[in-house]
Design a protein that fits this description.
The complex is a heterodimer of chains A (609) and B (255). Chain A has 609 residues and is α+β, with helices and mostly antiparallel strands. Chain A has helices spanning 2-18, 266-270, 463-491, 493-518, 521-539, 562-580, 587-606, and strands spanning 27-32, 36-38, 42-50, 66-80, 83-96, 100-104, 108-111, 114-117, 121-126, 153-159, 163-165, 169-178, 182-184, 190-191, 196-198, 205-211, 214-227, 231-235, 238-247, 274-283, 286-291, 306-315, 319-321, 326-337, 353-355, 359-363, 366-375, 382-383, 386-392, 397-403, 406-407, 409-411, 453-454. Helix content of chain B is 59%, strand content 15%. Chain B is globular, with a radius of gyration of 24 Å. Classes of the chains: A alpha+beta (609), B alpha+beta (255).
């Protein structure tokens, strides 16, 4: 009995904790799985009730262009942190019977004494293939189409305004809608912007959104553009590149693309069941009217600031001495294109203040100019008025805000101290120069073809160049050898005489040939003797006058071939005979002696001494 | 006698029908000008045809390669553009327009490409070397060699000035050594090494020269590689970081 009681108590406790929270609000929405269907095809309409599962089946009203049929209910219950949420979806099949654009009217369901109403949905029934979807919504100007997936994947570009002043901020929002598709490698969108300056994209946002009753994952890219000159300019078309992941085989699957956004089937990828396909979505461009700022009523101090601003000034010191710096902080706060906001011009007297370049800071919706000014004399009592003018784009008129004068006290310099103003070097002064953004592209072609040469005809391959290249080194060697020889000729007399010997011998032989022809034996032999003396004297570096037939016994001739030495001795003997008994010498003997001398000298020249 | 006459006639015909050197230059110049007209009209494909025809005469020039590269760039062929900029760089390495365009084209390479890891000194040396064309550094080296030879001759002949001339000769010898080093570097780059550029949109470098081989790394259009060897429709390439692999021959083109 006690056990039964415990069990019943536990069941009650469980029932208490698990029972639905009927105190929750009931939400009702109507969604469709498609926004465009071909004629004769069906789409699914869902009536979703969140917070209850007890709503009965609702009879749909008659709808133009569609026949409807109830499919059945689908209930869902989830427990999160002990809290239960429930829902029921009643699903209907809508079969299109007529082409055109139709509206699913708003539906009202009465439950538990309350009436719940849904929003109407627009659906297009096409005659042929699925056309581009027409997502409603403000600023939806352009969209792109991927064949057969146009209602599940498209791009929507929205602009903040269709008409703006030059340099006025125009917000651009590019939304990438994805319905149950696996998308990877999404790149930043690019759009044509001739005549516009474009800011960098901010961090993209990702969220879910219901459009025409269909739930989409949305990636939103935001940026600002500014018209650079007046006129009817066109922004766009916009292009976005990404990869679509699809199943390789669609067997057993309703669609090769059915998948959840960013879902990753690691096993599918691993076994290669999925494939990536690069796709590009494009939207058309749209015109924006850029207006010039009116010239009427332009204040003299206006420096192109556009927007709606407040202006304040503050000073770092109220009492200083001559030459001390005062930091004048000028803050421009509000909404508009801060790029057009420049530091207000200070029209102070040159004799009163030294003014440095301001340091510029951007802090959220405020632009701060910190301006260092130095009072030059003690007669200054105030910082004069400062004006800030801007063009209010909302009101369409110029406005000027005046601040100051600010009272200050400037004390004179102590005695002996001299007033000096230092020019701060650039970079230290905190001058925030606007960085110039330069465009980049290739530089234009060249007009002249330049020096044409044979392809691959390098200089080092040129035969003439190769030959010429050897000349300097040959010249160096030649000069070196020449100089060395010259030096030796100077230093070594024996070597010089030996070199001279054959030349002199040749000359003497020519003379002897002449004497032989004259037929004068005494002169011939006298000269022959002398020539022999000279030759041997030079050849063996001996005193010429003392050379006689005895030279053949000289040790200097010891290395000479005996036959040559013998011939030399014969020459000397004949000369001696001719001197003492000239009548015994015949003409043929003269000729033989000449030949003998010539032969002997020749052989001696060939002999290494 | 008859044969001699026929031979003489044929020789004469050959001389008369062979286009002269100046005719060929004029034709190349004409195609270059036509290419410029096409380029200015935004007809980049036709401009490429004209520039390529100018090159087909067997002559080349820095501006011709430069203009061809520009046309390829404008027609969307980044690889071919980089290839022809590099060819132009070998002839007019210090042309400011060329340097700017080559840098810009390289900045468009997907993934930025891979660069060689070198020490600061080597980087500076290669930078200096690449500012000389092979012909220019050949001329400079030859000029210095000539000067050094003359100085040595003077040292041999002029005893009195030997000391001063020796100092000048040492300076000339150092300059010659530096110039010759640059010459060898450029010679190695232009003649010995087979530099190539990826001309396909992307090229997979594989471990083996087979379609089904595993991909080692991927190359983007416009990247520099060195050709190591070739084999039946495949090229073994080396990336600047030293990684080697096989790519299909059609995906790369030698400079």
């Amino acid at each position: 009995m006690r056990i039964y009681f415990k069990i019943i108590t536990l069941l009650f406790a469980a029932a208490y904790f698990v029972s639905p929270c009927f105190g929750d609000d009931i939400k009702f929405e109507v969604t469709m799985n498609k926004t465009s269907v071909p004629l004769g095809s069906a789409a699914q309409l869902s009536l979703n009730f969140h917070g209850t599962q007890n709503v009965p089946v609702t009879k749909l009203p008659d709808m133009e262009g569609f026949d409807w049929r109830y499919i059945g209910p689908s209930t869902r219950m989830s427990v999160v942190n002990g809290r239960i949420s429930t829902s029921v979806t009643h699903m209907y099949n809508l079969t299109s019977v007529k082409a055109g654009i139709f509206k699913i009217p708003s539906m009202s369901v009465e439950y538990d004494g309350k009436t719940y109403t849904s929003k109407p949905i627009t659906i297009e029934v096409t005659k042929g293939a699925i056309s581009q979807p027409a997502p409603a919504g403000p600023g939806a100007d352009a969209q792109s189409d991927i064949q057969g997936l146009s209602d599940r994947l498209f791009l929507v570009t929205q602009v903040g305004r269709k008409q703006a002043y030059v340099n006025e901020i125009i917000t651009v929002s590019i939304k990438f809608f994805i319905n149950k598709l696996a998308i990877r490698d999404i790149q930043y969108p690019v759009f044509s912007h001739e005549g516009f300056l474009v800011d960098e994209f901010s961090q993209p946002k990702q969220y879910k959104s219901v459009l025409n009753g269909v739930l989409y994952d949305v990636i939103e890219f935001n940026t600002n553009v500014f018209g650079m000159y007046p006129g009817e300019l066109t922004l766009g078309p916009t292009e976005l590149k990404c990869s679509l992941v699809s199943k390789k085989s669609s067997r057993g699957s309703s669609s090769a693309f059915d998948d959840d956004f960013f879902d990753s089937d690691i096993f599918g990828d691993f076994f290669g069941r999925y494939e990536k396909r690069s796709i590009s979505l494009e939207s058309i461009g749209f015109p924006i009217n850029i207006m010039a700022i009116p010239m009427e009523g332009k204040p003299s101090g206006f420096d192109n600031a556009l927007g709606d601003y407040r202006f304040d000034i503050d000073t770092s010191h109220k009492e200083v001495k001559v030459g001390d710096p005062i930091t004048l902080t000028m803050t421009v706060r509000g909404g508009g294109n801060f790029k057009t906001v420049n530091s207000p011009k200070l029209n102070f007297k040159e004799d009163d203040f030294k003014i440095y370049e301001p340091e510029v800071k951007q802090d959220g919706d405020a632009k701060i100019f910190e301006q260092v000014i130095i009072p030059k004399n003690e007669n200054i009592t105030e910082i004069p008025e400062i004006f800030f003018s801007f063009f209010d784009t909302k009101a369409g008129e110029y406005k000027t805000i005046t601040k100051g004068p600010v009272r200050i006290k400037v004390n004179p310099l102590p005695e002996g101290e001299e007033f000096k103003i230092f020019e701060l070097p650039e970079g230290i002064s905190g001058i925030a120069k606007k960085k110039e953004i330069l465009g980049r592209d290739i530089i234009f072609i060249k007009d002249s073809i330049g020096g044409l040469r044979r392809r691959g005809g390098f200089l080092y391959k040129n035969k003439a160049f190769i030959i010429i290249s050897f000349m300097p080194i040959a010249a160096v060697f030649s000069v070196f050898i020449f100089q060395a020889r010259r030096q030796r000729l100077k230093a070594d007399i024996g070597y010089a005489r030996r070199l001279r010997a054959p030349r002199k011998a040749r000359k003497n032989l020519n003379m002897l040939r002449q004497l032989l022809a004259d037929g004068e034996p005494d002169k011939f032999f006298e000269f022959l003797f002398k020539a022999l003396q000279e030759y041997l004297g030079d050849k063996f570096h001996l005193t010429t006058a003392g050379i006689t037939s005895n030279i053949t016994d000289s040790p200097k001739l010891s290395n000479i071939d005996k036959e040559i030495v013998y011939d030399l001795k014969r020459c000397f003997d004949i000369c001696d005979r001719a001197r003492y008994a000239p009548s015994s010498i015949t003409k043929s003997e003269m000729s033989d002696t000449f030949s003998l001398l010539q032969k002997t000298i020749d052989r001696l020249e060939r002999t290494r001494v | 006698m008859k044969l001699k006459l026929i031979f003489a006639f044929l020789t004469l015909m050959f001389i008369l029908t062979k286009p002269s050197y100046s005719d060929v230059l004029n034709d190349a110049q004409f195609e270059f000008s036509q290419g410029n007209i096409r380029y200015s009209a935004g007809e980049y494909e036709q401009a490429i045809t004209n520039y390529e025809k100018a090159l087909s005469f067997g002559f080349e020039s820095g501006p011709l390669y430069y203009n061809l590269a520009n046309a390829y760039f404008k027609s969307g062929s980044l690889g071919k553009a980089v290839l022809n900029y590099i060819r132009a760089q070998r002839l007019i390495p210090n042309d400011a327009d060329l340097i700017s365009n080559l840098n810009y084209a390289r900045s468009r390479i997907k993934g930025g490409g891979v660069s060689a890891q070198r020490s600061w000194l080597m980087r500076e040396f290669f930078k200096l070397a690449s500012s000389f064309s092979l012909d220019k550094i050949t001329s400079i080296s030859f000029g210095l060699y000539l000067i050094l030879s003359v100085l040595i001759i003077l040292i041999i002949l002029l005893k009195d000035l030997r000391k001063v001339l020796t100092y000048i000769s040492v300076a000339a010898a150092v300059l010659l050594a530096a110039a010759f080093s640059i010459f060898l570097t450029q010679f190695n780059r232009v003649v010995i090494q087979k530099e190539a550029i990826v001309v396909a949109e992307a090229a997979d470098s594989k471990f083996e020269p087979l379609d089904e081989a595993t991909t080692f790394f991927s190359l983007s259009e416009g990247e520099d590689v060195l050709v190591v060897t070739t084999k039946a429709g495949w090229v073994k390439i080396k990336r600047p970081d030293g990684k080697q692999g096989w790519v299909k021959k059609v995906t790369v083109e030698q400079v």
